[in-house]
Each structure stands twice: as C-alpha cells, then as structure tokens.
Amino acid sequence: MRNMFNLASILISALLMGQVTLAQQNTPPLSGPDSTTDHSKLEPLMREFTSGPEVTAACLECHTEASDQIMHTLHYSWDYTNPDTGQRLGKRNVLNAFCGNVAANETRCTSCHAGYGWEDIRVATPADPTRVDCLVCHDRSGQYTKQDNLAGHPPLDPVSPGAKTITGKKAWAVDLTKAAQSVGLPGRDNCGNCHFFGGGGDNVKHGDLSSALYDPTKEVDVHMSSDGQNFTCASCHVSDRHQVAGSRYSVLARDTGGTGLPGQRRDVATCESCHSSTPHQSTLIGMKLNDHTDRIACQTCHIPEFARGGVATKTSWDWSTAGRLENGKPIMLDEHTQSDGRKLHTYLSTKGTFKWDENVRPYYAWFNGQVEYTTGLTTIDPAQTVEINRIKGSASDSNSRIWPFKQMAGRQAYDSELAKLVYTHTYGPDTTSAFWTNFNWDKSIKAAMDYVGEPYSGKFGFVDTYMYWPITHMVAPADRALNCNACHAKNGRLANLSGVYIPGANPMGPGGTAGLILLALAVVGVAGHSLLRLIGRKGARYD
C-alpha cells in the first residue's frame, strides 16, 4: 500500500511539473526594451521637446541624482588633476598632436561634450543640471546626434544648410521626443559616435577605435563581434554613479587584484578583472605564458596590429605645411585610399599634411601607468622631438609592463623665443584670427595665447612631436596572438626595447649569464646522476 502511495505521489508531482513546464513554454517572449521601464509609456516624455535641456529636465523628474553624478565625472568636467604628478590635465587643459587645443575653439571641440552649450572652457562646465546631455549616452532610437559646431547641441528643424554631425555626416533634424522615449543602456554607437571620431575623423586619434567596431567581425575584435562576446563598451568600461572606468590620464597598467566577486571591481577596465593574471591553460606552454603576465600586458600579445577592419588611422600630422592656397582658395588632396575603397585627405590648407596606415604594428614601451604631459607651461628643447605625453616606466620598475601604443608623429607650432608650445585659434568662420578662415599663423597664435592668458613673444616656429595612445581595443582571436619568435628574435618586435633578452641580439647581463651557468650545471648534474643510476642498474643485473 505504501509503495502504491509513493508511486501515486511521484505521478502527481510529475504531472504538476509537466503543467508548470507547459505553462512556462506557453509564456510569450519578452517584449520591449531590456530596461524595467518602457520610457515610451511615461507621461513626462509624451510631449514635443524643443531643446536638449528640456529633455534632461524631464529625465530629472525621475532620475533626480543623475545630473549631479555626471557633473562630477571626467566626461563632463574635462578636468583632471593627477594625484601623483600634480599636473592638471583633461581636455580643457592639455595640448595634443592632433587639433592642438580646445581653448579658443570651443563651439567645435565641445560638440562632443556630454553637455549642452559649454562655449568657454576658461570657466567651469555649466552647473545647471539641465545642461547635462542624457541622450548622448542613452538614446537607443539611433537618430540622435550632435552637430559639429553647436557646442554639444543636436541639429533641430530647420537644419542649417551644409551642417554636419560629429561623425561627419550631413546633419538631419533630430526627433527629441523619439529619442527621449527610446532611452536604455548605452550601446557601441553611443560611445563610438564621439570616441571613434575624435581628432577630426574616423579613427584619426586612437588607432584602435574606429567605425569598424560598430559591428566588427571576430577577426577585428573578439569581444565586440556579434559572433564573439557581442560586448558593448560598458561591458568592460564599467561604471559606478556614472564614473566610467578606464582613462588615459590614469591608467592601471598592472592589475594585481584580478577577478572580483559580484558587486566588486567597479573601478577598473582591465583584462585581469575578467581573465585573472593566469589566463592560459595549465599546459607547459600555458604555464610559461602565465609566467609573462607580470611583465607583459595582455594587449601586447593579443593585439598584434591596430587599425584593422578596413579603417585607416592617421599616423602623421604636419601643421607646418598648412595655409597653402591656389588662386587664393584653400585646397584639398585625397591621395590615400584605405582598404574599404574610401579616399582620405593627405593635404588640407586648413590642417596641413597627413599620413595614414592600416594594420599598424604598435610601438612598445615599459609602462607603469604614469604619463607626464608637455603643457603650455613646459619649456621644450626644439632641437629634439618633443613628447607630448611621456610614458613612464622601466624594466627595473616592478609596476611596469611592456605595453603597445600608437605613436603619433606631429609637427606643431611653438614660441621660438620662449621655447614653449603654443595654443592656436583655428575654428571660427566669422573671426579675423581663426586660421581656417585667414590662414595667418601669427594672428591665430596671438589670439589663442591672449585668450588663455599666456605670454607670446610674437615669434613662432614648428617642432616635431610624438604623442602616445595605449592600444587596448581590437583584440584578435587567440590563434592570431603573437608567438614567442615575434618578440624573442634578433629582429623581433622588442629588439629595441631594453630589459628584454633577445637571443643573439643583446648582451646578457651578469645575472642572466650566472643563471644560464647554473642551469647548465643543473642539466649536467641531472644527466650525470641519471647515467650513474643507469650504469649501476646494469651492473647489479649482471651480478
């Protein structure tokens, strides 16, 4: 009787489980956005908006602390003081080897700012909460954009003739209501629309951030590819109260923390935070590769080339040739064709001469995360190539690892009497000092130096510069990673880097020589011991 009761219980349980399973199978699939809120159903967003700040005001009715959080981020302030060097950095303060400087060129440069209407960087970013741009990161309608000369505002109806977006496309009238009702977590396009086009065009600046990453193949980026991990930028660049991990001003060159528990590691964007410092399999080769991770960045082996996917990167920018006119009019030469067939400018009267390249082998250097910038206050030696941002680190520094970089060659203006880099006023069609309008370097430099309140002797020249950008995107498939010979060879990638043993190329130090001698003695000792044991066994057998 007990057995029959047990059997009946089992059958009833099975039927109930079957009913539950059947009910689950008949449940319709999820619809709508991934967010727990469908913003198209929110009454504050069911209206016509006439400006970006109006949308932000509506967002703040629910997300009351969002603007305050964003105002404390580098994305909004463009202001950062390095706690180790004391240098005041951020876009509003530094000089670069691309467009030179933001100061005096605000309406063009702040078109990619995460806010609206910041037209004078000599004063802090607008404190009005409605001046924060929520849509630039959270629009998922795909039609929100910023105009390239409106200090962060989007193009609205009627759009000015000839207007361009920040990605260089012909501007269209943005539907702010549609954008506001679409908001969700940032996608690759939200980040890429600014970061892929920094420096004046697609992949101009970083080299490893281009439009190829909107929808890359697995060969271009295993993390972002839809055939790979299908990551968004935020998958690695995690955030906490809108503070986004990962900054070129404060790089975590060596992550000793490794992977974290749920709820932890919200302040890093490193390979180790997911893969740990021992990512390779426990094979003989894998263990040897794991032995490298304390001295070599993951990116060094796993990003063999950058500017992949058909989009070239700018490798040289010479401002000294700018200003050449033909029949009194500016000229443009498009003499480089990248692999997708698009022609790229090699000379512009407004900007000078350029070189482009694809599938670029990185520049390698020891890096401990610290970078020292050459600012407008730094005295330079014009007889030497000036490093805009000097990479810190060495083989003797335990915090340093070998990192890959894009090395950008530039030639830019400096005060030939004071021996300092200068600011330039380039953008501004309605001014008498903007270089893009008047092609007069002296007026351009004087106007910008007066604008920032720095002295100018009235004499200028041009100096060669280098600027470095850490390469950390476009991770290749594992079978495309560098092998041993790529680095440990006489003419390998690290042949000119100190602190790396290259067989037959660089002399070994006393420690290395002593190590090899000890290794040889150990091998001889083990071989001798084995031979004696073998002879001993044979002798014992014949006895």
How much helix, percentage-wise, in residues?
A: 10-25%
Strand content: 5-15%
Principal-axis shape equals globular
Distance between the termini: 77 Å
The average pLDDT score comes to 89
Radius of gyration: 29 Å
Total helix count?
15
Organism: Sedimenticola selenatireducens
Protein name: Tetrathionate reductase family octaheme c-type cytochrome
Transmembrane segments: 514-535
Keywords: Membrane, Signal, Transmembrane, Transmembrane helix
Key descriptive features of the protein:
543 residues; alpha+beta; 9-stranded mixed sheet; two-stranded antiparallel ribbon; 24% helix; disordered N terminus; membrane; transmembrane helix; Tetrathionate reductase family octaheme c-type cytochrome
Task: Characterize the structure shown.
GO terms for molecular function: oxidoreductase activity. This is Tetrathionate reductase family octaheme c-type cytochrome. Pfam families: Cytochrome_cB (PF11783). InterPro entries: Multihaem_cyt_sf, Multiheme_Cytochr_ET, Octahem_Cyt_c. There is one protein chain. The protein has a domain at about 45-185. It contains 15 helices and 19 strands. It is an alpha+beta fold and about 550 residues long. The longest helix is centred in the last third of the chain and has 33 residues, at about 510-540. Strands 5, 8, 11, 12, 13, 15, 17, 18 and 19 form a nine-stranded mixed beta sheet that branches. The protein has a two-stranded antiparallel sheet with strand order 1-2. It has a two-stranded antiparallel ribbon with strand order 3-4. Strand 11 (about 345-350) and strand 12 form a beta hairpin.
